[in-house]
Every structure is written in C-alpha cells, then in structure tokens.
Design goal:
Elements (H helix, E strand, L loop, with lengths): L33 H5 L2 H12 L2 H12 L7 E5 L5 H9 L4 E6 L2 H13 L6 E5 L12 E7 L8 H11 E12 L9 H19 L2 H12 L4 H10 L3 E8 L4 E7 L3 H5 L1
Parallel strand pairs: 1-2, 1-4, 2-3, 4-5
Antiparallel strand pairs: 5-7, 6-7
The chain binds S-adenosylmethionine.
Length: 265
C-alpha cells in the first residue's frame, strides 16, 4: 500500500494510488517514465541546482505567478518529482491546496520528506499517477502546473487533453520545459552546456549515465516552442503566452481553459 495519501485533496476517481504503474518498468525506462527517475531521485535537486546555476527555482516562481490563482485555489502539479513547484505554490499561496502527482515512488519519497520538513502535509497531497490518465473529475482544479515533465510523457496530446479536462473553465495551465535554444552566437554556449556538459556532469554526479543521456536527447527531440503551442491548441487550450527563458534554454507556455460558449464559437 502506498504511503502517499490524499488528505484534504480532491478525491481521485478509480484511484491509482498504491497500484503498480503499467508504464514504470525497466523495459521502457528510456521512453520516459517514473522508473527512470527512481534511480536519480536522491540527487535530483542537487543536480538541478548545479546544472542550471540555481536559475530553475526562479523559473518555477515565475510559473506560479503566471497561474493567477484565485483565493482558496485547488492546484494540480503534474510530474511533481521532488515537489519543488508544489511546495513553492503552497508557500506563495497560504490558502491554496496543491495536489502533486508523479509516477515515480522514488521522487515522491523525496517529495514527502520535503513537504513534511516544510510543515505542508495538510496542504500538499502527493499522489502516484500518470499525466495521461488523471484520476480526477472534470473541472476539479483552478490551475495546473507542470515543470520539466511534459517532455517525459509518451502521449503528450493525451496529457494536454487531461489538463484541459480537470481545470475549470477560465482556469490556467502553465507548463515549464527545457528546450534547445535557437542557433545564434549568444546561445552557442547554452547549446554546448546542454549537449556536452549536462550529460557528462549528470552522469558523474548521479552515477546514472543513461538517464542523463536520455535527458539531453529528450530535450533535443522536443517540439519547437511554437509547435508545442499548436499541440496545446489541438488539445483545446487557449494559449495566451509562450515565453522564452534565458535565450530559449527553457520556455513557459501559459494557457486558459475556454468557457463553454467560447469553445462552441
Ligand atoms: C525532470 S522531473 C521534473 C520534476 C519537477 N516537476 C521539477 O520541476 O523539478 C520529471 C518528472 O516527470 C515524471 N514523469 C515521467 N513520466 C510521467 C507521466 N507519464 N506522467 C506524469 N509524470 C511523469 C518523472 O517521474 C519525474 O519525476
């Protein structure tokens, strides 16, 4: 039985909590799944800080601001990993409740320790699950975030459709993801960092070379920012902004769930 609970959070339908996840097998690790992240969970935060020089935390704070949450918001953080985004959201919005979902038990174990250390057990609930099949009723949340997670999801369109389904009309979806910067003299250093430094440094510090090679390849294989915005529109999102960060090494996509009458037009 899982130790991750659903206290005070929207109750999942057909809850997968505690159930073994079909995707999380060694065989499809490099296709992107929770299993891959189990192996690097304990060092994930350290590696993030070292490889982005700490800028990743600034980007998460910006993502939370773009959510424009109402009072007493219900927030869903997908691919929560070690829960940096979920914890920061709960801290910035003391009246909000955050449901933080991820398929990796290893990442969620680290997240649970951090949530408890921050005295946020009552307001951040960890759930084992898959972004492609969310165990929540329609229009449950005021906003959804997903930080550095959509790249790992095999069927991104399905995940985007699920985000739209579980957010109430007028609510926002903010996605933060690493991207390859467009070629330019200035971005050349960033590209070398991403293609050469990240896989090597990641392998060295984590002892998991395959995982950090996957990281670099998955960034290179991610659609361009505008192509990803088109995929969001295909899923029914009203895309309001696509924001490049630091010469395009990451992007923020901000979308709104249209009101029923708007989508009918
Ligand atoms: C790079 S980490 C990002 C963690 C965190 N959001 C952050 O900002 O650091 C990617 C996360 O995606 C999760 N993941 C992989 N496949 C997923 C899926 N199908 N649905 C939801 N999360 C998934 C992994 O378990 C991992 O924790």
């Amino acid at each position: 039985m899982s130790r991750f609970t659903m206290t005070n959070s929207p109750q999942p339908q057909d809850s997968p909590v505690g159930a073994p996840l079909a995707q999380a097998t060694a065989g499809n690790v490099l296709g992107g799944s929770g299993a891959m992240f189990d192996g690097i969970a304990k060092r994930y935060d350290l590696l993030n800080r070292v490889m982005t020089f700490g800028i990743d935390q600034r980007w998460r704070r910006r993502a939370i601001g773009l959510l424009q949450l109402p009072p007493n918001a219900q927030v869903l953080d997908l691919a929560t990993g070690t829960a940096d985004l979920a914890i920061r959201t709960a801290m910035n919005h003391p009246d909000a409740h955050v449901t933080a979902l991820d398929p990796s038990r290893g990442m969620l174990a680290v997240a649970q320790a951090k949530v408890t250390a921050a005295a946020l057990d009552g307001r951040v609930s960890l759930v084992i699950g898959d972004a492609q099949h969310l165990p929540f009723a329609d229009a449950t949340f005021d906003g959804v975030t997903m930080g550095f997670g959509i790249r790992n999801v095999p069927d991104r369109l399905a995940a985007l459709r699920e985000m739209r389904r579980v957010v109430r009309p007028g609510g926002r979806i903010v996605i933060l993801e690493a991207t390859e910067p467009p070629p330019s003299l200035l971005s050349w250093g960033a590209l070398v960092h991403l293609r050469v430094v990240v896989p090597r440094l990641g392998a060295l510090l984590s002892g998991a070379p395959a995982e950090y090679r996957y990281l670099q390849k998955s960034i290179a294989g991610f659609p361009t920012p505008l192509a990803f915005a088109d995929l969001m529109r295909q899923a029914g999102h009203d895309v309001v902004a696509v924001i490049p960060l630091l010469l395009g090494v990451s992007h923020l996509w901000v979308a709104r769930v249209p009101q029923p009458l708007e989508s009918a037009r």
